[in-house]
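Sequence, structure tokens quoted for completeness.
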Amino acid sequence: MLLRFDEDRELMDLLADVAKLEGRKKHPMALRALRIGLEQVRDSYE
């Protein structure tokens, strides 16, 4: 999957900052964040 930030530079910077804090590269951190977010969205429907 290709992730485009388009005009959301703030989101791109946030991903880089959090990845650095956790000692991860951006791609694994983006997958982790996506999983957490999607689980929360799914749980909101239950």
